[in-house]
Amino acid sequence: MIKGLNYRFFILLSTVLACTILAFFVGFIKNETIVYTHSFYAPILLAGVWYRKKAIYIALFLSIIYILVTYPLAHLSIDVFARSAIFVAVAYVIGLVSEERAKGEEKLKETKDYLDNIITSSVDAIAVVDMDGIVRSWNKAAEDYMGYTEAEVIGTSNKKFFADPEEGEKIMRIVQRDGGLKNYRTTVLNKDKKPVHTSMSAALLRDKNGVPIGTVRMSRDITKEVELEEKIKEERDNLNLILESMDDGVYIVSKDYKVEFMNKVLIDTLGYHVGDICYKVFHNRDDSCPLCKNAEVMKGKTVRWEWDSRRNNKTYDLFETPLKDIKGTMSKLTIFRDISERKRMENELRDAEERYRVIFEHALTALCVIEHGEVVSLANKEFETLSGYSREEIEGKKWIDFIADEDMDRVQNYCEERRKGEAPACCEFKFVSSNGEIKQVNAWIEPIPGANRCIASLLDITELKRKEDELRETCEKLTELDKMKREFLNVAYHEMRSPLAPIVGYASMLERCELSGKGKKYLYIIEQSARELEKMINRMLELARIDSKKIELSLEGVYIPEVVAEVVKGIEPETKEKKQVISTVVPGVKIQADKQKVGAIFYNLISNAIKYTEEGGKIDIMVVDREREGDIRVCIADTGIGIPEEHLPKIFERFYMVDTSLTRKSGSLGLGLSIVKEYVKLHGGKVWATSEFGKGSKFFFIMPKRQ
Ligand code: ADP
Predict the structure, then answer these.
(1) 660 CA to middle of ligand 1, Å?
(2) Percent of the chain clearing pLDDT 70 (strictly above)
(3) What is the DSSP string of 388-455?
(4) What is the DSSP letter of 650?
(5) DSSP reduced 3-state for 515
(6) Whose CA is nearest to atom 7 of ligand 1?
(7) Does the predicted model carry a pTM greater than 0.70?
C-alpha cells in the first residue's frame, strides 16, 4: 500500500515538476507569450483520481506557477485568473467524483467482506458450482461436514458429492428452470463415502449481462432431523398400526368439530369422513349433539361415558381425552367400543340372578351357601323352617353346628371329598334344629365352580324315613308271606299231582275192561281231563322251580331240525283235526342248549299257533342260522286270530290271557308264554311277538348257538 502511495506520489510529483518546468521553460527561456496550460490537467487529473479533493492543492500550486510565469510577460489578465479558477474547479470536480467512487468502492468492499465473512462463518455449507458442474467456491462448513478441503475440491466436478451421480445435473436443471431451489432434500457422500442427508437451497448466478454462470448452493446436514423424522414416522406408523388394528373405533376431532382422524374400524362402519364435521356425518345433525363432550374435553378433562344410540339400538362405551399436537393445538381423541352385547349379557345376568334368587328363596327344599366349608353365608326360607333359626341367626353360623355329633366327622369327610369331586352328590345325616330336635335329612352338596364355596340342598326325610321303615317292615312281612305261599303252592301242586297219577293209571286200566259205549266215553273224558290237569300242574310246578331258581340247564348239542320234527309229529293229531297246514324251513343247525327246554319252547309256540288259528289255517316255522351273530333266529307265524296291539306287551306275563272265545274254549291258564320267556332267557336269548289283529301272529326268538 505504502509502496503504491509512493509510486503514485512520485508520478504525480514528476508530472507537476514537468508542468512547472515546461511553464518556466516556455515563459522565461523561450519567452513565449502564451503558456500552454493543457498539460496542467494531467497532474490535476491524476491527483483527483488518486488523492481526490487534495487535487485542489495541486491545481492551486499549478495556478500560482501559471500566474508567476505569465506575470513577467505582462500578460496578466482576467483570462489567466479564469484559467486558474478552471484548474481549481476541475480539480475539485475530479476530486469530488473520485471521492464518491472511492466511497462506493469502500462500501462494496465492506459488503464483499461482510458476505465473505458470512460465507466463511456460515454453519451451512456453501458451494459455487459453475455451469459445467465444476466447484468454484467451498466454504469452511462445507469442509467440515463433507471432509474435503477447499483445495481438494475447487476445480473438480460436483458429481462425486452425490449418492446419485445424476443429482448434480438434476439440481442444475431445476435451478435453471425455476431460478432457484429451496429445502431440496438429497443425500451427499462425504470424503469417507458415508451418506449425509442434506437440505439444499440453491440460486442461479448470473453475470452482469444476465447470462447464467453457475449456481450457489447452500446445504445443511439434516441427518439428525431425518433420523428423528424416521423415528417419528416409525412411531406414528406403529401408533397408526395400533389404532388401525384396534377393534374399538377411534377418531380425533378438532375444537371446531372437524374430523382429523378415523381408524379403519370406523371408516369401515361410517365411511371415510376425515375433514368433515363430526355431528353432520356421524349424527346427521346441523349443530353439535347435546351430549357431546367436546367442550369439556377441550378444557383438558378426560371423560368416560356410555351412549345409547337410538338410531341403531346400540350402547357404546366412550373414552374421550384431550390431545395436543406439537404446535399446542388441542383436539379430542375418542375411543369407543360397542358394548351392546356386554350390556345384553349383563342384563341377562341380572335377570338370571333375580330368577335364581327367587328360585333359591322359594325352593321347597332347604338351601344354604357354605363358605370355605365352614360358615353359612346365605339361607332360604325353607332352611329357616328346617332349622328353626331366623335368617340373621343362620347367616354367619358354622355349618357343623347343624350336624349331630355322631355324623359330624362323616359329613365333614364327605364335604371334603365332594369338593374334590370324589363323593356322590347325596349324603344323609342327622340335622340339629334350634330346639335340639334331630331331623333326618338328605343333603345334596354341590361345589360352586371357581369359588371356595358350595351350595347345600337339604330335604327333611324324617317322615319319609319313618314311612320307609314301615314299608320295609310290611315288605319283609309280605316277602315272608310270599315265600310261605310259594312253599305252600309247591307242596299243594305236588299234593294235587299225587292223586292224579292213580286216576290216570286206573283210567288206562279201565280202558282194557269191557265197558259199555257210554262207559267208554266217560272214561275217555276222565282220562283227557286228568291229563289236562296234569299238564297245568306241571307248568305251575315248572314256574315255581324257575322262581325258586332251582332250575338248571343241562347243556348238550341240540340238532334243531330233529327237535322241530319231534314237536310237529307229537302235535300232528291236532293239526289234522283242525285241517291246518304246517310248513317248516329249518337248516341243519346244531346249538348248545338244554334239549328238553328247547323242545318246550317250540312246543308252546307251535301249539299256541295251532290253538289260536281257526280250521284250515296255515303255520310256518322258519329257522335262520345267523353265522355272523352266532345265533339262530326262529319265527313261528300263523294265520290265526291275532293279538290286539294293546295286549302284545303283556302276553309274556304270567297268567296273562287275551279274552277271546278260543282262549275260553281252550281252557288256557296264561302260563305257556311265560315259560317260553324264562327258558329263552336262561339260554341268553330273547323272545318277542308281532301281530295283526284278525290276520295272524308272528312269534320270534333268538338263541345263541353257544352258551
Ligand atoms: P295260554 O296257555 O292261555 O295259551 P299263553 O301264555 O301260551 O297261555 O298265552 C297267553 C295268551 O296269549 C293267550 O291267552 C292268547 O290269548 C295269546 N296267544 C298266545 N299265542 C297266540 C297266538 N299264536 N295267536 C293268538 N293269540 C295268542
Answers:
(1) 10
(2) 96
(3) ---HHHHTT-BGGGGB-HHHHHHHHHHHHHHHTT-S-SEEEEEEE-TTS-EEEEEEEEEEPTTSSEEE
(4) G
(5) coil
(6) 672
(7) no
Distances (CA, A) of 200 to 128, 175, 185, 669: 13, 11, 6, 123
Q: Which of 81-85, 338-342, 390-394, 549-553 has the highest mean pLDDT?
A: 390-394
Distance 487 CA to ligand 1 centre (A): 27
Q: Is the pLDDT of residue 677 over 90?
A: yes
- Measure the CA–CA gap between 132 and 134, rounded to whole angstroms: 6
Task: Using pLDDT thresholds of 50, 70 and 90, give the confidence band for residue 174.
Answer: very high
Residue 74 — very low, low, confident or very high, per pLDDT cuts 50/70/90?
low
Q: Which CATH number does 248-338 carry? A: 3.30.450.20
Centre of ligand 1 from the C-alpha of residue 562, in Å: 25
DSSP labels, 168-229: HHHHHHHHHHHSEEEEEEEEEE-TT--EEEEEEEEEEEE-TTS-EEEEEEEEEE-HHHHHHH
Q: Across residues 245-257, what is the average pLDDT?
A: 88
Ligand 1 neighbours by CB, cut-off 6 Å:
604, 608-609, 612, 638, 640-641, 643, 651, 656-658, 660, 663, 668-674, 697
Distance 658 CA to ligand 1 centre (A): 7
CATH number for the segment(s) 363-456: 3.30.450.20
Averaged pLDDT for residues 602-621: 95
> Which SS3 state, helix, strand or coil, does residue 314 take?
strand
CA of 492 to the centre of ligand 1 (A): 26
Decide if 504 contacts 531 (C-beta within 8 A): yes
Please give the Cα distance from 638 to 583 (Å, whole number). 10
User: What pLDDT shows up at residue 471?
Assistant: 93
CATH for the 467-544 domain, from 1.10.10, 1.10.287, 3.30.530, 1.20.144: 1.10.287
Confidence of residue 200 (pLDDT cuts 50, 70, 90): very high
Query: 579 CA to middle of ligand 1, Å?
Result: 20
The predicted-structure confidence for 424-478, as pLDDT tens digits, reads as follows 878 899 999 999 999 999 998 888 877 788 889 999 999 988 998 999 999 999 9
Q: At what angle do helices 517-547 and 672-682 cross, to 10 degrees?
A: 40
| 523-563 tens-digit pLDDT | 888 888 888 888 888 888 888 888 777 788 999 999 999 99
Pocket of ligand 1, candidates 658, 678, 700: which has the most ligand atoms within 8 Å of its Cβ, to mutate? 658
Q: Which three cell numbers stand for residue 129?
A: 458450482
Residue 666: the pLDDT is: 58
Segment 130-149 shows an average pLDDT of 89
| Whether pLDDT at 665 is above 80 | no
Residue 682 in contact with residue 644, Cβ under 8 Å?
A: no
CATH entry, 552-704, from 3.20.20.140, 3.40.50.170, 3.30.565.10, 2.40.50.140:
3.30.565.10
Confirm whether 122-228 and 363-456 share one CATH topology. Answer: yes
Q: Which of 645, 673, 680, 691 to mutate to test the pocket of ligand 1 (most atoms within 8 A of CB)?
A: 673
Q: Which atom of ligand 1 is nearest to the CA of 656?
A: 10
* CATH superfamily of domain region 122-228: PAS domain (3.30.450.20)
Nearest residue (by CA) to ligand 1, atom 8, is 670
Helix (H) / strand (E) element for 687: namely strand 686-692
Of 1-10, 89-98, 349-358, 562-571, the least confident: 1-10
For residue 688, how far is its CA from the centre of ligand 1 (angstroms)? 13
Give the pLDDT score at 41. 87
Q: How far is the CA of 582 from the centre of ligand 1 (A)?
A: 18
What pLDDT score was predicted for residue 1? 44
Domain residue spans of the chain: 2-116, 122-228, 248-338, 363-456, 467-544, 552-704
Which residue out of 614, 663, 680, 699 has the highest number of ligand 1 atoms within 8 Å of its CB and is therefore the one to mutate? Answer: 663
CA 641 to ligand 1: nearest atom: 25
